[in-house]
């Protein structure tokens, strides 16, 4: 999985007054959990753009004045009005411990059902995976090459390489629904067949 680098500085004071001062200075207060003890730090708000405002999944390499941590984004709080980032929680990664995180679904292939006029519905845009940090995928591939009209693609049909999908077997990733135009064409074809059959009987 691709990694994003963020540089920040450790925070000595974490009270409300200090936190407000951090935000007023255009910085975001953050904390890293998962280690022997939480690590509080701050970083510029713009440093998180490529991490937060993207559909892609990333690990994060955090550099706090020489102290380095590999982590993933665990939780984020936004201002209810301005949508400014108020606080971010990270979880520290360990090479020998599996981690659960959400990654995007990437649709590949061409569905025969879509070619016939069906509509592809993506039911799951992101899926939870469990893996060692080194095996975390950038995305989960959903191959729709065999989806006919009305078919569904379940998580059990997805390829998993060194990671597990944390979803029930009956979870539908995507499906090809019959469009109104296709349904109308099918109805007209059926009607035409009936008419032709009646004509032969006469």
Automatic annotation (TrEMBL):
Domain Large ribosomal subunit protein bL25 L25, chain residue ranges per copy: 6-90
A Pfam family this chain is assigned to: Ribosomal_L25p
Organism superkingdom: Bacteria
InterPro entries: Rbsml_bL25/Gln-tRNA_synth_N, Ribosomal_bL25/Gln-tRNA_synth, Ribosomal_bL25_b-dom, Ribosomal_bL25_C, Ribosomal_bL25_long, Ribosomal_L25_dom, Ribosomal_uL5_bac-type
Keywords: Ribonucleoprotein, Ribosomal protein, RNA-binding, rRNA-binding
Record SUPFAM superfamilies: Ribosomal protein L25-like (SSF50715)
Domain Large ribosomal subunit protein bL25 beta: 99-179
Annotated Gene Ontology cellular component terms: ribosome
Family affiliation: Belongs to the bacterial ribosomal protein bL25 family. CTC subfamily.
Function: This is one of the proteins that binds to the 5S RNA in the ribosome where it forms part of the central protuberance.
HAMAP family per record: Ribosomal_bL25_CTC (MF_01334)
Subunit structure: Part of the 50S ribosomal subunit; part of the 5S rRNA/L5/L18/L25 subcomplex. Contacts the 5S rRNA. Binds to the 5S rRNA independently of L5 and L18.
Protein name (database record): Large ribosomal subunit protein bL25
Gene name as annotated: rplY
């Amino acid at each position: 999985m691709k990694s994003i680098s963020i540089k920040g500085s450790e925070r000595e004071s974490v009270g409300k007054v200090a936190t407000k001062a951090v935000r007023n200075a255009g910085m975001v207060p953050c904390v890293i959990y998962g280690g022997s003890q939480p690590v509080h730090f701050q970083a510029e708000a713009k440093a998180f753009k490529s991490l937060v405002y993207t559909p892609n999944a990333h690990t994060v390499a955090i550099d706090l004045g020489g102290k380095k941590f590999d982590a993933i984004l665990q939780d984020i709080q936004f201002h209810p009005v301005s949508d400014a980032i108020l606080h971010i929680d990270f979880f520290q990664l360990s090479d020998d411990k599996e981690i659960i995180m959400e990654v995007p679904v990437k649709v590949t292939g061409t569905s025969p059902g879509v070619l016939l006029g069906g509509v592809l519905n993506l039911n799951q845009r992101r899926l939870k995976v469990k893996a060692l940090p080194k095996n975390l995928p950038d995305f989960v591939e959903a191959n729709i090459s065999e989806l006919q009209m009305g078919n569904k693609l379940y998580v059990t049909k997805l390829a998993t390489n060194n990671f597990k999908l944390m979803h029930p077997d009956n979870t539908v990733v995507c499906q090809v629904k019959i469009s109104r135009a296709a349904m109308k064409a099918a109805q007209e074809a059926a009607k035409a067949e009936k008419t032709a059959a009646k004509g032969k009987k006469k």
